């Protein structure tokens, strides 16, 4: 979400980050923020109002109320902001739970789940590119890796499995290559593969759709990934192979999203008047 903590004015924003962080949570007019994402979701819900249950609308109403409360927060109220963010999170989790437990697994559900998998994979790839493609000193990297694992909802699993300070190779094993971790890139792509085969036109022997081909290529790349090799650091303390790999993942996900859109959304051409008014005709 631009500008974030880079570009012009970055040093000032880093020195006093509260206003920028609050904007990332509460500014509904800024693409990429929490509030913007929730607002877009609420607009989508309104478009299918008759398809949603009363319980769902109860949660949606609560979410709208909590979002409005969050917008009244000021940077000097960290405990209040944290409490309001917690209530927004509760509503989002409730909404996700209703979708998981109540929606029929028809084409609509698989289309929605495909979107969720693309978004989650895209966000994780962006997170990793912004944090672990450059090597820092040991103390900084240790703190940074733990923060990334925490953001990826995988810190408890990591500690239980590896019982050591976070390392780049094992972090990538868990967040990128592990098919059993529901937050990993590999898991998102595996689920996405299942979804696209169940959408209209999918799973036709000998005639895969473009999105099926793209998902297969991405899945193969994740299956053969050598996390140790891509963790190699060059003379500039960077991990160029990891950066390149994540860039390819991001590009592949964008192509899959475009292919799904092209197949499933009707693209309306601009309407043109084919003839003049009747009084102008001869």
Write a brief structural summary.
The chain contains 13 helices and no strands. The protein has 282 residues and is mainly alpha-helical.
What is the helix/strand order? HHHHHHHHHHHHH
For the sheet with most strands, the description reads: none
**Overall 3D form:** globular
| Mean pLDDT across every amino acid position | 89
CA(first)-CA(last) distance: 58 Å
> What's the count of strands?
0
- Structural class by SSE content: mainly alpha
Q: In what range is the share of β-strand residues?
A: under 5%
Number of contiguous helices: 13
Radius of gyration: 22 Å
Please estimate the helix content. Answer: 55-70%
Low-confidence stretches: none
3D structure, described in words:
The chain is mostly helical and 282 residues long. α6 runs antiparallel to α13 (240-264), α10 runs antiparallel to α11 (210-223) and α11 runs antiparallel to α13. The mean pLDDT is 89. The protein is globular. It is 66% helix and 0% strand.
List the helices and strands and how they pair.
Elements: H1 10-15, H2 18-26, H3 34-47, H4 54-71, H5 78-102, H6 107-131, H7 138-151, H8 155-162, H9 168-177, H10 185-197, H11 210-223, H12 227-230, H13 240-264
